[in-house]
Amino acid sequence: MVRMRRLFRLLLRGFIAAAIITIVATALAIWLMTRSIPDYTASFNVEGLSAPVDIVRDAYAVPHIFGTNDPDVFFGLGVAHAQDRLWQMTLLRRIAQGRLSELFGRSTLAYDDFMRRLDLAEAARSSLSAQDDKTREALNAYAEGVNAWIEEINKGALGRGAPEFFLFESSIAPWRPEDSIAILKLFALQSSGQFQEEVLRARLSMLIPPARVSDLLPASFANDDRNIPRYFDQFPNARLGAIRFEPAELSRLSPLRSPNLNSSMLAWAATRNRTVSGNAVVAGIFDTQLAIPSLWYLAGLELQVGGVIGATIPGLPVILSGRNSSLAWSGTTSNIDDQDLFIEKLLDTGSREVLTPAGPRPIVSRPSVIRIRGEAPVTIRLERSENGPIIQSDLFGLSSVIPEGHIASLAWTGLSTNDTSISALMGLMTAKSTDQGFLAMRSFIAPAMTMIIADEENLANQFVGERPIRDPRNVFGGFMPAPGWLWESQWRARGVAKPSNADDSGMQTQNDSNIGQQVLSPNIVRADAKDFRLSRLERLLEARDVHTRDGFIEYQQDTISPAARGLLPLIAKNLWFSEPPAPSGTLARRRADALQMLADWNGDMNEHMAEPLIYTAWMRALQQRLINDELSKMAEGLPVIQTLFLERVFRDVDGASIWCDVVQSEEIETCDQIASLALDDSLLWLEETFGRGDLSTLRWGDAHQTALDHPILSWSRGFSFMSNIRLPFSGGDTTLFLGFSAGASEDPFQADFGSTFRGVYDLSDPNSSVYIASTGQSGHFLSRFYDDLGRLWRRGEYVPMYLERQLVNAGSVGTTSLLPLRN
């Protein structure tokens, strides 16, 4: 008994000691992590300033920066970005430089290999000298501001700047001006993705006829891609190889946009004669992959020409969408085909040479060392042909279409070593009229964008950025990898377009689809032949004679799916009210109930409704039945519901209804039969997944939730609980209030892609503009400003941003004072 008591006391003491150690360790960890939450009321003496700078944070921690000259203001922006998003900035820089593996080991080696071969970091360094003096001065001042905060972190033991830095031993390298240019180039790369589609089109063409490829991948308005030859016609030795899919948890570290996440961005505006206020109103939506923190960071800059407010990207000292006292602008990344893959033929000469239109040419190369955490470094050779860098990657299936004895190179406008895009954006911020704004944007190169710019008198739009001019004899026209040794495959030149003023209706709407009809030439646009979101927006705009700021906000929150409204009557026309009476609880009864519910539905993708879930599950099952037999394992690469494909099949466009016939069966199936079977598939899946026989109890928000996941902390269950945000979400793939699903097998309807920034600018009042981003300003998961904006964003609410300091001060949570360090 005594022995038992002694053992009990020992165990109790051990438990108490362990508990105390755990509590102390947890408290210490929390203290260390909270040390990196910046004090917005502090003052700092820093090097690099000519005069004091105030960073005034409004009620949502949006910084408004005031200084006596522009370089000091950009210095302040560098400090603000680093205070709130230093980890995100350094992560973006590592992705652009191809240096992820130094932190994350071999799991990210493929990303680093690809980015090293593109060599964006070197192109950014070379582009620095091409910037105008004002921009170089701003870039230098911004870098000094970032470095000043890094110095404060080291000097004041401020928790290494962010909790994520405690997980890695690597030190924070000083920020350089060219790092900002590299991040803009990375944004350009992730805004495109045409070379990935070229590979997918080539793979499909090896399995199905050109007309059937067009069903799945409509090419453009200006081209009849049914006449494009099969990939085998140009490369008879090509063999369709297997494709490797990257782990889902690494997707937010990828330098490439997922080819499944290809929704368009939108911008629109009304001239003074179509608004209640008598001045132009501009609205913009930026669609990007959902993550926390968001790609966007709201900021206000008090420059010498006046205030500028809007959306920035941490690492970039420019406002991509916003307004100043005279001008408002919003850009959308145009889905322009500004990339081409070339298949280069290697010559068997014993040296590294390829065949070109002018004969054999050597490949230029140099070594590059990739350091890998926990392993020996890997040395690769960065090679370049006359067409562009040689890329070797399985990230998007490229190696699966390269014939033996060949290699692939990439031509892309964003590889320019004289890229003045950041200078163009700098000029736009300080412009006072549409003419000045578009004059500044003439030097913009990448990403290819569509800009709407409005002042008090004028409203105009323009495609900005370089675009390739292809030879009309190019057999693939940029749709598939082309032979690099043929003259007709080469780019003839690069061009830009001229501004287009508002038409007689006084309205401008832009996205990557309709811009192709207005200002671009053939073989440029890669967009859906019918953009459902744009058609919905145009209908809303046409329904009213005059518009207001609040009306534009209402349009941005619209959750009606034009695809559902168009597809359901087409697919279910012979199924509605055709079901005989069936007993309760049977599949036949659930089928009849589902069809009745969808017949009464108006297409609203509201998170509280059952119909959006039934509709989306049905369309997913329908697409799987249509493509699985023809494409087999390749169908895995098309998990997203292709609304245009379904429309073409059920309208039998160019014989597309042949997809309804199951190849392996003797019977010729009809589309109605396949639609009915797919409905049964979806109803069974819904019951298995949600365990509810009563369809009316389903909720779209149960399946459609925001995937606001942290790129790194989401890997750990403990941290992901604190860092990730999953909330029911309205909207869908084709709604203006976007909630695009990538179609992952585990969570096929999870919202992976959305309108992560929305803004509406009314030029009648400099203080009436409203903005919202998908997450808070802070990247620190223990900060109260980590997710505060995200809650408003989900509910469709906005925050104001002011150009007048008096209004900014009124709701301020603090002012950070930066004082010049006097020796």
From TrEMBL:
Cofactor(s) it depends on: Ca(2+)
Q: What ranges does the record list as Polar residues composition bias?
A: 502-517
Which EC numbers characterise this protein's activity in its record?
A: 3.5.1.97
Determine if Calcium is one of this entry's keywords: yes
Report TM segments.
12-33
Which residue ranges does the record annotate as region Disordered?
497-517
Family from the record: Belongs to the peptidase S45 family.
What protein name does the entry list? Acyl-homoserine lactone acylase QuiP
Organism of provenance: Planktotalea frisia
Gene name tied to this protein: quiP_1
